[in-house]
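so my prof wants the structure for this chain in the tokens format not the other one, which i didnt know existed until like an hour ago. anyway here's the sequence
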Amino acid sequence: MKRSPGLLAAAAAAVLGLAWLPRASAEPPPAAALWNADRSAAAASMPAATGAGLFVFLRQDDGSFRSIDASRVEDANLGKLGRARSEFERIETRPVRWLPRSGGLFRITVQTRAWRQGRRETAEELLVLRPDGTVLWR
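here's what i got, hopefully its the right format
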């Protein structure tokens, strides 16, 4: 079976945790989404199959949206706090602000708040996305 180089690169990136691949979506972002300045992208915390998730919506040329599950950014933020997920009683992750585009890339700051023994800990991560929806680390 012949494999395309693009598929191999995507598979390697997924295994290494370097990038996530987008999925197409006909549904627009939810009303509570945080939009970027030119309304070409939005982000929202939403229910997902594995609990709450962070999704980014990129407007396509035809007006539809591409939905990207960027929930793994929460793991990066929890890593900054230096504790295992199981040590927290409650975890919330949300988009907080879009930054100006740089080199054609979308950039958004994502905040995770986690409560442990009644105390809140907070971490932020810069999420960077290519226009095709591929999520990159900062």
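also thought this was worth mentioning. The longest helix spans residues 5-16.
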